[in-house]
């Protein structure tokens, strides 16, 4: 402050007010500078707090060797409906999704030409019936004349032959009428079995033949899954292998077993057909595609959740909780080698052993040697890995 005054005195051009302002500014700067802390200062105490982390103790669990395929649901009791008569469809008595009983009318085909054939045969039968009646009268008259010697034996035999011929002709017409009447029934297409009506690709007015598919009827139950396995994996197949049907998240919907393996390879796809029955019918439909997993083998192994793994420069690492020898716990980073992955777990090949305490959450907030406070993993209660036991699958 004295220095500022001496400068002001030496410069006579400055006013007293200007000199006082300079003195005040210098005092303010000196006060602010004195409030700065010394370099390198920090909060007292120095020790970092221990972070809470969830841990799980590694223990062997069954690790399945599986391969995943796309399966197709088929019905063993699916019936394709085709007409047994040709003509124009005049009525459709059902729709897709209807549940029908045996004998229910599904389609009607124009039967006018067939009814005309039956009517014509009926008229012929009336004429032939009259011919038979006349032939019988002639045979009776010939018998009477033969008895009195007024007709020869040959003439009598001719009359009897005409009677038998007329009877045969009448029977032939009756058989034709019965046949054509049965054909007439085919113009009403009925359900042969009970079940659910599938797609109906025809419309009223369409002309159909005996090879035209009208619809399908799928009976309840009797479903099976068709799985095409590449020939490279066919040697591992055997009857009785477990087959899992899983949803989009990998959760198991049903577990079945292989009951059929094709003895030959499909030359077009180079695959082997595998079948398994499907008892959980309520959740599946005919011609539905499903995710399937064939379990080739199962053996004990260690699995770790994917949330416990970090990757640095192509190497996988995890953190384990270990004692620091002073009554506390610290996190140590370990490199690991991982194998197959299914769902939320890796198969551990090396780097850890059973009994190691794995940190399964909070790994983003800790480093190697950081103090931690272990807490049981949520939903795990007994110290087992937080994720479900691994079901390792081939890729």
What's the layout of helices and strands?
Blueprint: H1 2-10, H2 16-34, E1 51-57, E2 61-75, E3 78-81, E4 87-92, E5 99-100, E6 105-109, H3 112-147, H4 153-185, E7 188-190, E8 195-197, E9 207-208, E10 215-218, E11 223-230, E12 242-246, E13 252-257, E14 260-261, E15 271-278, E16 289-301, E17 303-305, E18 310-312, E19 315-323, E20 329-342, E21 345-350, E22 357-359, E23 372-376, E24 393-394
Parallel strand pairs: 1-23, 2-24
Antiparallel strand pairs: 1-22, 2-11, 2-16, 3-10, 4-6, 4-9, 5-8, 6-7, 8-10, 11-15, 12-13, 12-16, 14-15, 17-21, 18-19, 19-20, 20-21
Helix pairs in contact: 3-4
Task: Please characterize this protein's 3D structure.
This protein is of the alpha+beta class and 395 residues long. Helix content is 25%, strand content 35%. The protein is built from 4 helices and 24 strands. The chain has helices spanning 2-10, 16-34, 112-147, 153-185; strands at residues 51-57, 61-75, 78-81, 87-92, 99-100, 105-109, 188-190, 195-197, 207-208, 215-218, 223-230, 242-246, 252-257, 260-261, 271-278, 289-301, 303-305, 310-312, 315-323, 329-342, 345-350, 357-359, 372-376, 393-394. Strands 2, 11, 12, 13, 14, 15, 16 and 24 form an 8-stranded mixed beta sheet that branches. A 5-stranded antiparallel beta sheet has the order 17-21-20-19-18, with no helix packed on it. It has a 4-stranded antiparallel beta sheet with strand order 3-10-8-5, with no helix packed on it. Strand 19 (315-323) and strand 20 (329-342) form a beta hairpin. Helix 3 (112-147) packs antiparallel against helix 4 (153-185). The longest helix is centred in the first third of the chain and has 36 residues, at 112-147. The relative contact order is 0.19.
């Amino acid at each position: 402050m004295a220095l500022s005054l001496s400068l002001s005195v030496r410069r006579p051009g400055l006013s007293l007010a200007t000199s006082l302002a300079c003195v005040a500014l210098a005092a303010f700067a000196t006060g602010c500078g004195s409030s700065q802390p010394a370099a390198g200062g920090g909060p007292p105490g120095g020790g970092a707090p221990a972070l809470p982390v969830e841990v799980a103790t590694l223990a062997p669990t069954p690790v399945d060797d599986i391969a995943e395929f796309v399966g197709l649901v088929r019905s063993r009791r699916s019936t394709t409906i085709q007409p047994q008569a040709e003509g124009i469809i005049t009525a459709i008595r059902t729709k897709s999704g209807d549940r029908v009983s045996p004998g229910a009318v599904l389609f009607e085909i124009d039967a006018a030409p067939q009814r005309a054939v039956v009517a014509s045969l009926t008229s012929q039968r009336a004429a032939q019936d009259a011919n038979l009646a006349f032939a019988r009268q002639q045979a009776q008259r010939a018998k009477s004349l033969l008895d009195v010697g007024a007709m020869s034996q040959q003439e009598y035999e001719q009359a009897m032959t005409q009677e038998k011929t007329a009877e045969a002709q009448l029977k032939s017409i009756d058989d034709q009428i019965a046949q054509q009447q049965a054909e007439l029934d085919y113009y009403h297409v009925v359900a042969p079995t009970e079940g659910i009506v599938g797609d109906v690709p025809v419309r009223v007015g369409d002309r159909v033949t005996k090879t035209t598919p009208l619809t399908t009827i799928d009976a309840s139950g009797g479903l099976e899954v068709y799985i095409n396995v590449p020939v490279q994996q066919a040697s591992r197949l055997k009857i009785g292998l477990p087959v899992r049907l899983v949803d989009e998240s990998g959760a198991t919907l049903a577990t079945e077993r292989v009951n059929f393996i094709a003895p030959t390879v499909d030359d077009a796809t180079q695959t082997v057909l595998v079948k398994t029955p499907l008892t959980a019918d309520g959740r599946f439909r005919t011609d539905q595609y499903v995710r399937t997993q064939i379990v080739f083998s199962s053996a004990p192994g260690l699995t770790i959740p994917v949330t416990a793994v970090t990757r640095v420069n192509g190497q996988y690492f995890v953190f384990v909780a270990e004692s620091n020898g002073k009554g506390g716990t610290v996190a140590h980073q370990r490199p690991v080698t991982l194998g197959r992955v299914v769902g939320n777990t890796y198969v551990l090949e090396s780097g850890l052993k059973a009994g190691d305490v794995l940190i399964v959450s909070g790994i983003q907030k800790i480093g190697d040697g950081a103090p931690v406070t272990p807490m049981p993993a949520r939903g795990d209660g007994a110290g087992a890995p937080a994720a479900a036991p691994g079901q390792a699958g081939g890729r």
